[in-house]
């Protein structure tokens, strides 16, 4: 590896625009196909790890082997001396005074300085001419550590004399938290929980434990940074939010934002794990230093250290209810482990606190949610974002309350279900449809899957339909069935007063005698199908057939994040909003050109349909191609959802959320009680989506989200050693996600009750199905086994007691 | 070392290959064929599934040297491969399984898609009307994180049904 590597002629690969024709009827509400489908099916779609540039170098990150340690010294001389190595960087090489970044709080060093705070923290960077050269050079960097004691949970983090994860906090939460190792704390207090508890006929309390889940997107963190002649850098990257990355990257590089030109490359899934930066700054720094393009691609092992995870949580819940099955009160305490750096923890705390009561009417609540700073891996955004952990606990409580009252668990939930007009624990009224009882009714009304399906094919047991599957562990002996229900509530969009907006640029012109539209946004397409609905919206609003979706980049204004179930609402809303303005301009042109020919130009309400200008009565006034001949309309506009408020720091009161999203699940499981193996036989779901802009994509989101919740119920957990705070299973061999054999049939019932405040009445759909899936599976396993099961994921030993 | 093999029907050569490089690395970084994907690089996820002398393998687990003189089919060559095998379809047309994945909504982020397509095509090659259990078994080595697999099952069923319809139409 000592010689430079000549390469076969490989093409440079960059993201391209996606042009899709189609009937004008392929507007909103149709299940149009993905415009990037063919590229993805042929292997041509350019993911961030596929980026290639002549003369490019490969970057590699050296990460800490300890969770908490002082860095005594770093010796890079041997690494630098290795042939093929072009640069080695440490904290001391950072070019400006800005050496930290972070989503909400800039507490994360670009490279470790003085100490490391978690296992796998980046310490040094190498650029070399082959990835193996870079890895070997990184291994030659000598870092001398002096180990420090770790804090790993609430007790150790808040113990007297506990080491502080961050000694000198000046962030906006520092002044109101009870301990410097508590990152943020949000109470929600409403009514009088103590007085209400006195009215309760039954009181149920319990402690619940939620493990650390990984997003496990398939496309590892990767990208290509290309130094530009103007001293700037072009970055091809997989992310959820280009402009948030940009805001964090540019100051560290010492560049104005306009000199960091970012283009979204193909994104292999995200699920929250790409909200934070990973290799973005590192690749740019190496490119600046070497003057050569630098590509960094994490492998799966590194990916487990390269992004934040879902917060593990300990939750204590107490509910009371009267004999007639009405909730009296809720007291709860949710402790989230934020790990070593803040990431999105403050917002996760806000969600957990404000949604802690679930989709139920509870007037008297005393809620507390907090996130810790510890030396565990940093945790932040993952699909469901704080609402997931709470849902696991409150749904377990609902089943226990129903049992104590001798009520059917669905009936009990329905008696307490919120509806439009319900006041949330935050004091915010639910002012759009909230069909919680109806969603439960729908999943319960579905026929149950037949018993003993492993005998369906005749002749003997088909082990593929049994717990343990092809491991051939049972032919039905010791297998029992259980059924469980759960329902959840998730907020849509960025909350708590955040100025959440998106931007869309839309151009309309005549090409080849036909009016066509071009849509340009910075929305990160991560697989959800935003590009599909943008084309649909443009067709609906502009009456065109052909729409081109330009690659997302930073030449257009921010689209906000592809998270919080918000992109169809927000960037879909932005595309709609800009299209409406474009349409008005087009009609102005039409009036100018043709207004004298027909009075309807001035008097009627005009629409664009099927390439024509028509009146609302259906009369054709002219061809769009004629109106636009020799002209074009090109507008870039911002779109905002209604404003929200911060939650009061003492009482949690405030109109903090934009919109809510609801899903309910029924899980049917079969459990091999002798071996503790679980087979989820069916996972039925009903969800209100307001308006399904693309039903095929909506169902795909619901099934995908449900499956991630299933994984959390029975297999997915990052194991962190409680003594060393080191990650024990950073691989797909040891961190399991559901395969097609683990995943059941998932009937989906889509309800469409419009939210009048949202574009087309739609509701964000991506996250809600991830909430209730996990507790429904847990409830089904409890039903099958009679066990209490207060932690997720459930492991075989929890079922066998061994 | 030098590695020479047939990839998608064409002889390909890579020079100065380090012995530790995988077939996946050589395909992606030296032969300009990034279709096979690098999701785990330890044989757990199936995203890099290619055919090696007809057998579906994880290209990340095959040392590049092992491919010397052998025949490799990647997702980039799947349409041609299927057309020659099936004796139907026009040049430039997608393979039936590719068309079915698009039509059924089986593609979201698409990172698992190349491996799944190669595996699903191989399943349909040996079993033209697989049961759901057969499909699940054949694709159990291919992880997908987006779809929950329901649409992938739909896609394979659709490809099988279209294949049966086609051969029935031909009087086969």
UniProtKB/TrEMBL annotation, chain B:
Domain called 2Fe-2S ferredoxin-type: residue spans: 1-78
Q: Which domain of life is it from?
A: Bacteria
Extract the Pfam families matched here.
Fer2, Fer2_2
The UniProt entry, under Gene3D superfamilies, shows:
3.10.20.30, [2Fe-2S]-binding domain (1.10.150.120)
Q: Which InterPro entries match?
A: 2Fe-2S-bd, 2Fe-2S-bd_dom_sf, 2Fe-2S_ferredoxin-like_sf, 2Fe-2S_ferredoxin-type, 2Fe2S_fd_BS, Beta-grasp_dom_sf, Diverse_Oxidoreductases
Kindly state which keywords UniProt assigns to this record, in alphabetical order. Answer: 2Fe-2S, Iron, Iron-sulfur, Metal-binding, Oxidoreductase
For this entry, the protein name equals (2Fe-2S)-binding protein
Organism expressing this protein natively: Streptomyces celluloflavus
């Amino acid at each position: 590896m000592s010689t430079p590597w000549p390469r076969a002629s490989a093409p440079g690969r960059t993201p391209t625009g996606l042009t899709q024709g189609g009937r004008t009827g392929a507007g909103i509400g149709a299940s149009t196909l993905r415009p990037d489908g063919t590229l993805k099916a042929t292997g041509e779609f350019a993911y961030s790890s596929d980026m290639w540039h002549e003369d490019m170098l490969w970057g590699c990150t050296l990460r800490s082997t300890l969770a908490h340690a002082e860095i005594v010294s770093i010796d890079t001389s041997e690494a630098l001396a290795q042939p093929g190595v072009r640069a080695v960087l440490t904290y001391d090489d950072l070019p400006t005074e800005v050496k930290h970044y972070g989503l909400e709080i800039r507490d994360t060093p670009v490279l470790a300085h003085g100490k490391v705070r978690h296992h796998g923290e980046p310490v040094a960077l190498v650029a070399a001419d082959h990835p193996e050269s870079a890895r070997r050079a990184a291994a030659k960097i000598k870092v001398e550590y002096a180990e420090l004691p770790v804090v790993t949970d609430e007790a150790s983090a808040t113990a007297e004399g506990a080491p502080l994860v961050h000694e000198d906090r000046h962030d906006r939460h520092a002044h109101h938290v009870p301990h410097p190792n508590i990152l943020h704390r949000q109470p929600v207090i409403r009514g009088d929980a103590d007085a209400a508890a006195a009215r309760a006929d039954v009181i149920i309390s319990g402690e619940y434990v939620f493990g650390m889940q990984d997003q496990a997107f398939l496309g590892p963190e990767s990208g290509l940074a290309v130094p530009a002649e103007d001293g700037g850098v072009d970055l091809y990257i997989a992310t959820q939010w280009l402009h948030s990355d940009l805001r964090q990257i540019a100051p560290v590089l010492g560049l104005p934002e306009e000199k960091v030109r970012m283009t979204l490359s193909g994104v292999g899934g995200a699920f929250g794990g790409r909200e934070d930066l990973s290799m973005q700054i590192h690749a740019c720094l190496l490119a600046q230093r070497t003057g050569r393009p630098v590509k960094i691609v994490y492998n799966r092992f590194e990916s487990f250290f390269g992004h934040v995870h879902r917060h593990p949580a300990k939750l204590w819940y107490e509910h009371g209810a009267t004999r007639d099955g009405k909730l009296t009160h809720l007291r709860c305490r949710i402790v989230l482990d934020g790990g070593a750096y803040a990431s999105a923890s403050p917002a996760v705390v806000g969600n957990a606190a404000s949604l802690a009561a679930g989709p139920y009417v509870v007037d008297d609540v005393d809620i507390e949610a907090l996130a810790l700073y510890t030396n565990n891996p940093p945790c932040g955004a993952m699909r469901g974002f704080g609402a997931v952990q709470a849902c696991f606990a409150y749904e377990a409580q609902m089943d226990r309350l129903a049992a104590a009252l001798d009520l059917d668990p669905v009936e009990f939930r329905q008696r307490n279900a919120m509806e439009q007009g319900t006041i949330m624990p935050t004091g915010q009224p639910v002012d759009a449809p909230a069909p919680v009882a109806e969603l439960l009714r729908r999943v319960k009304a579905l026929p149950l899957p037949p018993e003993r399906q492993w005998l369906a094919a005749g002749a003997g047991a088909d082990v593929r339909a049994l717990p343990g599957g092809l491991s051939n562990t049972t032919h039905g002996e010791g297998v029992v069935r259980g059924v469980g229900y759960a329902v959840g509530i998730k907020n849509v969009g960025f909350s708590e007063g955040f100025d959440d907006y998106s931007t869309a640029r839309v151009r309309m012109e005549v090409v080849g005698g036909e009016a066509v539209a071009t849509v340009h946004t910075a929305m990160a397409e991560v697989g959800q199908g935003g590009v599909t609905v943008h084309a649909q919206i443009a067709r609906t609003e502009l009456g065109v057939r052909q729409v081109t979706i330009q690659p997302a980049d930073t030449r257009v204004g921010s689209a906000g994040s592809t998270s919080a179930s918000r992109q169809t609402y927000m960037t879909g809303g932005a595309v709609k909003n800009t299209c409406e303005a474009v349409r008005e301009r087009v009609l102005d042109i039409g009036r100018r050109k043709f207004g004298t020919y027909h009075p309807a130009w001035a008097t009627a309400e005009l629409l664009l349909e099927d390439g024509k200008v028509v009146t609302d009565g259906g009369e054709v006034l002219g061809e769009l191609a004629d109106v636009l001949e020799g002209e074009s309309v090109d507008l870039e506009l911002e779109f905002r959802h209604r404003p929200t408020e911060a939650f009061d720091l003492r009482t949690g009161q405030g109109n903090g959320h934009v919109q809510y999203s609801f899903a309910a699940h029924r899980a049917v499981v079969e459990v091999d009680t002798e071996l503790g193996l679980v087979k989820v036989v069916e996972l039925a779901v009903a969800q209100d989506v307001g308006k399904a802009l693309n039903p095929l994509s909506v169902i795909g989101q619901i099934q995908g989200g449900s499956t991630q919740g299933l994984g959390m119920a029975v297999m997915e957990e990052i194991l962190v050693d409680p003594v060393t705070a080191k990650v024990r299973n950073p691989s797909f061999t040891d961190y399991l996600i559901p395969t097609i054999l683990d995943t059941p049939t998932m009937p989906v019932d889509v309800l469409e009750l419009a939210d009048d405040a949202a574009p087309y009445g739609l509701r964000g759909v991506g996250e809600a199905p991830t909430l209730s899936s996990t507790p429904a599976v847990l409830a089904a396993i409890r039903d099958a086994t009679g066990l209490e099961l207060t932690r997720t994921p459930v492991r075989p030993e929890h079922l066998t007691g061994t | 070392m030098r590695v020479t093999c047939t990839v998608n029907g064409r002889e390909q050569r890579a020079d100065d290959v380090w012995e530790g490089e995988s077939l996946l690395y050589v395909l992606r970084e030296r032969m300009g064929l990034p279709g096979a994907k690098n999701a785990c690089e330890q044989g757990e996820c199936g995203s890099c599934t290619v055919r090696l002398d007809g057998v579906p393998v994880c290209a990340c687990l095959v040392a590049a040297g092992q491919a010397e003189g052998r025949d490799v089919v990647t997702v980039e060559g799947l349409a041609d491969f299927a057309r020659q095998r099936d004796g139907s379809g026009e040049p430039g047309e997608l393979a039936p399984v590719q068309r079915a994945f698009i039509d059924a909504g089986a593609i979201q982020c698409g990172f698992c898609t190349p491996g799944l397509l190669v595996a699903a095509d191989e399943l349909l090659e040996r079993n033209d009307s697989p049961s759901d259990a057969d499909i699940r078994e054949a694709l159990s080595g291919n992880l997908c994180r987006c779809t929950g697999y329901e649409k992938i099952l739909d896609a394979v069923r659709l490809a099988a049904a279209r294949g049966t319809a086609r051969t029935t139409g031909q009087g086969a």
